[in-house]
Amino acid sequence: MAKVTIDGIEVEVPNGSSVLQACEAAGKEIPRFCYHERLSVAGNCRMCLVEVEKAPKPVASCAYPVMDGMKVFTDTPVVRNARRGVMEFLLINHPLDCPICDQGGECDLQDQAVSYGKDGSRYHEQKRSVKDKYVGPLIKTVMNRCIHCTRCIRFAAEVAGVPEMGATGRGENMEVGTYVEKALSSELSGNLIDLCPVGALTSRPYAFVSRPWELSKTDSVDVLDATGAAIRVDVRGGEVLRMLPRVNDDVNEEWLGDRSRFSFDGLKRKRLDRPWVRRDGQLKPASWAEAFGAIVQNVRGQRIGAVAGDTMDAESLFALKAMLNAMGSTNLDARQDGAKLDASRPDYYLFNSSIAGIEEADAILIIGSNPRVEAPVINARIRKRWVAGGMRVGVIGEAVDLTYPVTHLGAGPADFAAGAEFLKGAAKPMVILGRGALARADGAAVLAAAWELAKGAEALREDWHGFNLLHQFGGQVAALDLGFVPGEGGLDMEAMLAGGVDALWLLGADGFDVSRIKPGTFVIYQGHHGEAAAARADVILPGAAYTEKDGTYVNTEGRVQRGRMAVPPPGEAREDWRIIRAASQFLGVTLPFDTLEALRAEMAAAHPVFARLDQAPLPGCTDDAGPEAAGAPSHAPFGLPIRNYWQVDPITRASSTMAECAATYLRPALAAE
Known about the structure:
five-stranded mixed β-sheet; Ubiquitin-like (UB roll); 4 domains; alpha/beta; 19 helices; single chain; Rossmann fold; Alpha-Beta Plaits
């Protein structure tokens, strides 16, 4: 540790720290544009100049290492004049259109010009003009504003692993953009908007829609993939206008996938905003009482089953399970993708190493998964670990570009022996099994074989749990924690669709082919978008999307998180647990809770995991007995469950922004095939 004096304040910082980090440790604010704590140091904006004792001139604090006994001064006449000079240079060519700029209110350049600049400029020459670049349907460019901080270039190359941005030209002719004009091919491209300090890269869907001070901001959690990224929902007038990531170092750091960031316009399209009942073969509008009356007439005790969707909150799942159990039914299933999951033990279906634990691994074997599209932020964490060095990645499944070098070991379960050999000798090996690898007839055998592979690689120890299952959506783990799977004598989804039940309750279940439902089955659809499942239903109960209710979700590592209501549901739609509570009263099995707090207390009492908020499971494996499976897996190669990253659920399929992305990115790929 080095002792450094900052403006008379002595602080102790690790050796190798920069002067800027030492200043922050002392509570001193240092202006910067190019420096970002999660990117490499460029040292090219020079805004972070400070004075160091005995140094002949001000130094760039972001790139200058500390030394024991160093004395630093952050607010002297020399420092102030140096920063004013830097700001004057930065504003030579920057357009002075702050009142009409769409970055107004969130512009680092504007804030720092006021705080550290001076009130005039000595330059009167014409400003240079730079052509705007096309970088895809999500990011709008205004390149006249660019100050060449190179944050976007470093993020694309270092974090996203897609080095498609760079600088061409020198001096006054330097321009930042893609070398060849094209859409950025990263699922994390929206983070460039957050990183850009001047608004040269802004959100195309949000441009000129609102000013930041007009928005109400609600902290929540993303459910459109299983990472459980911390997000902020920005709302004006009852409409979601923007999704932004929040910092959570244990989960998403400060990144967010493009699907989660930009699909919010799907929340206001194709919505179900009132109950519907099928009469004379046609769905017709109805009152809530009429909808519940139709359910009472057609539901008979044990001959009812329920299938839950992938983004449902735990409260709704718990309420529906409790209602069906009270009616004598154990016909429950939340595995609408058909994955052969074993819910008897949490570590059979969790990402046990934790997301942050990826940074401890020295060998990773990915089986039947493409984390780049299933969980882009987790894939970025794997890349971060690879960039740090000393880690290798192997893949069994389809060969895809994961943005980091991998060793392709085979296509299916027949190559598990090669995977075991690949992990041999690793101190902390990880196996990442994709949920899609279990959505096949031999899925249970694949799960058991993958567990045994991890066990043979010594990945299941008291100090390290290297078996990880990567889910795809934010509601999938909570359903398993709650036991929303067939109970004793209960039917799974296949049996229910084949006619094993007279009535089928679909709770946000839109991820399967509804033509598989046997004709004559009475279908109740409870959800928020009018898709094929709603069209097949006999009764439609309009529910709330994840931004429209307070809900509990569990991410792929088993971390229990809370989402919060940012806007009310549209029209007559209601929170899903309230709908189920009302239905239980009509069906004569009234549930024993009337408030969300009472429901959560019941849920935590029955399933203690829901009382532990924002905690990853304890590390280590104390029992390496694997899941049971009859027979061995087949030699059929693994497929990938998500081909279209942009449109995977009702919200994203209703989004015009996601439709434009799909048209931009998928059609060239299909044409190439």
